[in-house]
Structure formats: C-alpha cells, structure tokens
C-alpha cells in the first residue's frame, strides 16, 4: 500500500495535473499543432522536391538529394535542432531583428522531416510500374507531364500511410524544441509539463503531457491503419438493388 501511495503521489497528483491543464490547452496544444503542421507542410514540399531530384536524370541533382537525405537521416533529431536553431539562429535574428527561436524550431523540424518524406515519396514513385510511364509517353505526353499527371499521383497514393506516420513522428519530435529556449507564449506541451514538474517537484505534469500526446497520436495511428486497409482491400462493392433483394429473400426463406 505504501508503494501504491508513493506511485500515486508521484504520478497522479490531481492538484498538480489540474493546475497545469489550462496552460496545456491554451498554450501547449496550439503550439504543438503549429509546429507539427507547419513543419509537415514545408517538409512535404521539400520532400517532394528531394524525391524528384533523387529520380532525376541529372546526376548532380541525384547526388545532392542523396547527400542531404543521408546526412539529415543520419543525425539524431536533437542534434539537428540544436545545430540549426542555435547555429543559424543568430544569423536569422540579425537579418530579421526577431528574438524568437520559434521560426528556427519550425525550420529544423521541416528540414528533418523533408529527408524522411523525400525517401517516402521516392519509394512510392519508383514502385509505380514503368509501363505506366511508357503508356503515357506513347499517348504523346512529355516526360514532365507524364510524371506529374500519372506516375507521381499513383506513387503518393501508395505511401499515404507512411506520410501520416511521419506526421505522428513530427508531433512527438516537436517536444525536442524546448532545447532552443522558447518564449513563455511559444512553449509546447512537453515544455509546459517540464516547467510545472520542475516547479512542483512532482512528475504528474509529465503524465498530463503524455495524455495530450496520446490523444493526438493514437487516433492518427488508427487512421493510418484504416488507410492501409482501404488501400489494400479497396472499397467494399455495393450490391445492386435486385441482387440485394434476392439475398434478403433467401435469408427469409431459410
């Protein structure tokens, strides 16, 4: 019983959780979503560019894409965030006059996600049968329009589950930007939980932060599974009215 009480006091201090919830809702949750969505959109655009460079006929473009992807995927996320946020931050502040590290946090997450999304797109595009491209070229389309209108859309459709998984990873990786020292109004879920835990000396705010992350990631995980099933099995065929009536009639006779 003493152990249970100790665990309860350490992780389930409802007073500490109640004190941190308003700030997590009002500040942490919006900032986490802004970080994840902004970097996801920018990373998707850059990732598609990297994918097209990676399958380009130009050897220089392929090398640039390969080096970028290998470096950004090979570094730990926290190291990339620190190098970009703290290394290039002063230069950006000198140009813009802004003291906020928030844009650098988005930039770091975007550049990291672009490396992974680029590989996702590249694998999806290269999985499309070459006959699709050849058939489109036979109809009179140039290489560019054939890729843009036929091959790329099919490749993107095949990797939708992997793209959503990458967005889930971005939500979790957004917790690492606390290392950049965000302003009070810019702090995400983890930073708010960390501040509250440091102030109260209790780990319950971390539990509250974990619940927020689970509320975001678990539904997306099930959404990924649903997309994957739909892509593998397709939509269920609708029975024609006469056929459906016949099935119902057979059931009634039985």
From TrEMBL:
GO terms for cellular component: ATP-binding cassette (ABC) transporter complex. Residues 29-224 form the ABC transmembrane type-1 domain. It is a multi-pass membrane protein. Keywords: Amino-acid transport, Cell membrane, Membrane, Transmembrane, Transmembrane helix, Transport. GO terms for molecular function: transmembrane transporter activity. The chain crosses the membrane at residues 33-55, 75-96, 102-121, 167-185, 205-227. It is found in: Cell membrane. The keyword Transmembrane helix applies. It comes from the Bacteria. GO terms for biological process: amino acid transport. InterPro entries: AA_ABC_transptr_permease_3TM, ArtM/GltK/GlnP/TcyL/YhdX-like, MetI-like, MetI-like_sf. CDD domains: TM_PBP2. Its main location: membrane. The keyword Transmembrane helix applies. Belongs to the binding-protein-dependent transport system permease family. HisMQ subfamily. This is Polar amino acid transport system permease protein. It comes from Pseudarthrobacter niigatensis.
């Amino acid at each position: 019983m003493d152990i249970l009480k100790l665990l309860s006091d350490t992780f389930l201090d409802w007073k500490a959780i109640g004190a941190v919830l308003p700030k997590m809702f009002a500040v942490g949750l919006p900032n986490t979503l802004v970080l994840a969505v902004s970097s996801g959109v920018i990373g998707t655009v850059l990732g598609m560019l990297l994918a097209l460079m990676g399958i380009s006929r130009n050897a220089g473009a392929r090398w640039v894409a390969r080096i970028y992807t290998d470096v950004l995927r090979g570094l730990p996320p926290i190291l990339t965030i620190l190098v970009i946020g703290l290394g290039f931050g002063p230069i950006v502040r000198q140009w813009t006059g802004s003291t906020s590290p928030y844009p650098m946090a988005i930039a770091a997450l975007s550049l990291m996600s672009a490396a992974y999304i680029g590989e996702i797109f590249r694998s999806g595009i290269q999985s499309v049968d070459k006959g699709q491209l050849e058939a489109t070229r036979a109809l009179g389309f140039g290489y560019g329009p054939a890729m843009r209108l036929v091959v790329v859309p099919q490749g993107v459709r095949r990797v939708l589950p992997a793209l959503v998984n990458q967005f889930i990873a971005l939500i979790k990786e957004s917790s690492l930007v606390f290392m950049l020292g965000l302003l009070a109004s810019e702090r995400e879920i983890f930073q708010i939980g960390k501040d509250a835990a440091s102030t109260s000396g209790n780990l319950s705010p971390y539990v509250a932060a974990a619940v927020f992350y689970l509320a975001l990631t678990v539904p997306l995980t099930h959404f990924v599974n649903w997309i994957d099933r739909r892509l593998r099995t397709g939509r269920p065929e609708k029975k024609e009215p006469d056929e459906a009536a016949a099935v119902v009639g057979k059931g009634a006779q039985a």
